[in-house]
Design goal:
By secondary structure, this protein is an all-alpha fold. The longest helix is centred in the last third of the chain and has 24 residues. It is elongated and about 60 Å long. The chain has one domain. It contains 13 helices and no strands. Helix content is 66%, strand content 0%.
C-alpha cells in the first residue's frame, strides 16, 4: 500500500484523535476517492502505528520546513526515499506537506502526541527522528534552525540532551562521517572500557534492528533507514574496539 492510500485508509477506519487525527481527516477530505488498503498487504496488530508513524513524519517534516521558509522539492523527494511514493504521486505528498505546514496545530502538539502513542518504544521514536534527519539533510546539511527544531522534538519525545547528541551523531549523514565521534554514536564516555563499549553496542543493535521495527508494525520502507543506522553503529563499535585493543599490553 502506498503512503497516500495508507493515510486515507487510516483516516477512514481509525480514530487517533488529537492533531494527528485532525490532519488525517483533512487528508481524506482532499483525496476522498483514493483507494484503501492495498491488495494482499497484511494488517498489523495495531494499524494505528503505521498510520501514526507516517503522518507524524509528514507533519513534523512539514513543520520543520518552516524553519527555513518553504517546502522544497528536495524535502518531498527525501520523504519519498523513506516511504513508498510511486511516480505521479509526488504532488499528493506535496499537498499533504502543505496541509500539515499550514495547520494551526504547533509542532509541539504533534510531537507530544507521538511521544504518547509510542511511549516505551524508544527505538520507534529514534527511527522517526531518523526520518526527520533524512528530510533535513535533503539540501546536504542540517542548518542551525533545523537542529534546534529537532532538538526540541526530541525533548517532547522524552529524550535528554545526551540522547539527542547520540541520535544526531548516528543520523548526521555520510558526508560528515569522518568527523563523527564514535563515542557519541554509541552513547559511551571517551574513557569507556571495551566491555562498556560492547554492552552499549549490543543494546543499540538489539533496539534498532530492522526486523524488530517491522515486527512492531512500522512501515517496511523504514528498513533502509534502520539498516543504515545499524551500519553506522557497527562502524563506531569496530573503530573504538580496534583503538582500545591497539593499546592493550601484549600477553607474555
Amino acid at each position: 500500500m502506498t503512503v497516500i492510500s495508507r493515510l486515507v485508509a487510516g483516516a477512514r477506519e481509525l480514530s487517533l484523535g488529537g492533531p494527528i487525527g485532525a490532519l488525517l481527516e483533512r487528508v481524506a477530505r482532499h483525496l476522498p476517492h483514493w483507494p484503501g488498503h492495498g491488495e494482499g498487504e497484511p494488517r498489523t496488530a495495531d494499524p494505528r502505528r503505521r498510520v501514526a508513524f507516517t503522518i507524524a513524519v509528514i507533519a513534523l517534516g512539514a513543520k520543520m520546513a518552516q524553519a527555513d521558509g518553504i517546502v522544497t522539492r528536495d524535502e518531498v523527494a527525501a520523504f519519498g526515499e523513506v516511504f513508498q511514493v510511486p511516480p505521479g504521486e509526488e504532488q499528493h505528498v506535496r499537498m499533504i506537506f502543505d496541509l500539515a505546514r499550514k495547520s494551526t496545530a504547533g509542532f509541539e502538539s504533534y510531537a507530544r502526541q507521538v511521544g504518547r502513542l509510542f511511549a516505551g518504544d524508544r527505538a520507534v521514536l529514534e527511527d522517526l527522528l531518523g526520518g526527520l534527519f533524512h528530510i533535513a539533510l535533503a539540501d546536504g546539511r542540517v542548518c542551525p534552525a533545523e537542529d534546534a527544531y529537532l532538538r526540541e522534538v526530541a525533548h517532547h519525545f522524552g529524550f535528554d540532551a545526551a540522547d539527542y547528541a547520540r541520535i544526531r551523531a548516528v543520523h548526521l549523514g555520510p558526508a560528515a562521517e569522518q568527523d563523527e565521534d564514535p563515542h557519541a554514536i554509541l552513547g559511551v564516555a571517551p574513557h569507556a572500557s571495551i566491555d562498556e563499549i560492547r554492552t552499549a553496542y549490543r543494546r543499540l543493535v538489539r533496539d534498532n534492528h530492522p526486523d524488530l521495527l517491522v515486527s512492531q508494525g512500522l512501515p517496511p520502507e523504514c528498513v533502509a533507514l534502520a539498516t543504515a543506522r545499524v551500519a553506522r553503529i557497527n562502524a563506531a563499535h569496530d573503530r573504538l574496539v580496534k583503538g582500545r585493543m591497539r593499546f592493550q599490553p601484549q600477553a607474555g
